[in-house]
């Protein structure tokens, strides 16, 4: 056997040798593919300039180099995930003390909607250039609002009006105090609009169910109709300073208009109250509730056999009647006209039944009713308590019991106004409680607190659900089926809030939501 060395060159593929150790014949000619496969080719250096102009390899090579230069593999994390060092105590105290949000002790809600820091020169430039045009279009005096007294909430109107027009698609939205201030205004403004139109339509159409009213509201302040009102008030140039609103497509036109529209009514409500909201809606924007495109679809309506109050019977109330209405001094309720729109005089025939004697005292005891009121005449207190008991019975009288016998829709009307006042009270609570939070975070928090399954849960936690009067055919289904039970108990909860608002006003709704039912779930639970 011939000795072999590892130093022998393998350049030739024709290797011939003989062996007597094995009877298995060795192939003397090795296959070229097997021999080459033992070497791994890591890279081939080819100059793309040497390749032909239209060579695929050259195009791929240039594309890879271009990708490497334009988009590196390691992307920077989003800014919201970059941890910043916390402010030290001195800077934090200075920031809060200099914040306009803590400057108004007498108007906590208005103070919470002011910008988190003082307006800078860029903000004042916009105010000097465009604010007079906005105030003229809305029908306000042109002098600066800083000239008002300190105890007048309209003193902050210029600042809030500036924030209302800084929608998320404008150039000033990069400033944190502007972006957060605007979003907090539109978060409040949407619920102000809903409550204003709810009260208006309930009093204007006393025999109508809330279904057609919701259609009327959508036809007035639905997203697709808002550009029409903005253009009617000649405010489109303040929203789209560099574009023609009519030439924009819907997805570029509607979101900024909706954001400004809602924020505008949030600012007006904070500075001037609900009557001014009606004036802007129906006088400045020119909304017409009797317009043809505002009418609901036709429905089968059962004949209404009950009477309505004299002030509703003679004519349809206008927005001036609703905005300028002030209850008399000896009125039974805080909102007497709204109460009569939901609980007409004919409802007294429901009094004196088993529920009135058995369940009503227990319900009033759980809710803390009747509240102690100081009236000039004792008979007024007694009459109010009687009407309150009647209203509570209507709140617990589910539509499945009387829907086809009595078409007045008292339960649905109380539920409708209760839903809107509940939304507004919760929005005001969140704005005051979370000064730093932007509007979108507040919107999500608002939605999670007032979800159907939670509202009904608050009512059931107080053991009020056994007092609901269902029809015999659906009693078992509503008691045991979660999909039916949650909306039913939620609607009763909202009807109670609507009744409390009409009888005692907004402070009573706050007491029910945050003290009796504990919507925020912050009170200690009894063991």
The helicity comes to 40-55%
Element order: H for helix, E for strand: HHHHHHHHHHHHHHHHHHHHHHHHH
Residue stretches low in confidence (pLDDT < 50, at least 5 long) are: 4-33, 35-39
Instruction: Indicate the mean pLDDT.
Output: 84
Structural class assignment: mainly alpha
**Could you tell me the radius of gyration in angstroms?**
36 Å
Output the number of helix runs.
25
Distance between the termini: 97 Å
Strand proportion, as a percent range, falls in under 5%
Gross geometry: globular
Largest sheet properties: none
Number of strands: 0
Structure in words:
With 527 residues, this protein is mostly helical. Helix content is 54%, strand content 0%. Helix 6 (157-164) packs antiparallel against helix 11 (250-272), helix 7 crosses helix 21 (439-449) and helix 18 runs antiparallel to helix 24 (482-504).
Keywords:
single chain; 527 residues; mainly alpha; 25 helices; 0% strand; globular
List the helices and strands and how they pair.
Blueprint lengths: L31 H6 L18 H15 L18 H10 L9 H5 L8 H18 L18 H8 L11 H29 L5 H12 L4 H7 L3 H4 L10 H23 L1 H11 L25 H4 L5 H6 L11 H7 L11 H5 L1 H8 L10 H18 L3 H4 L7 H24 L5 H11 L2 H10 L13 H6 L1 H23 L1 H11 L11
Short summary:
By secondary structure, this protein is an all-alpha fold. It has 25 helices and no strands. Helices cover 54% and strands 0% of the residues.
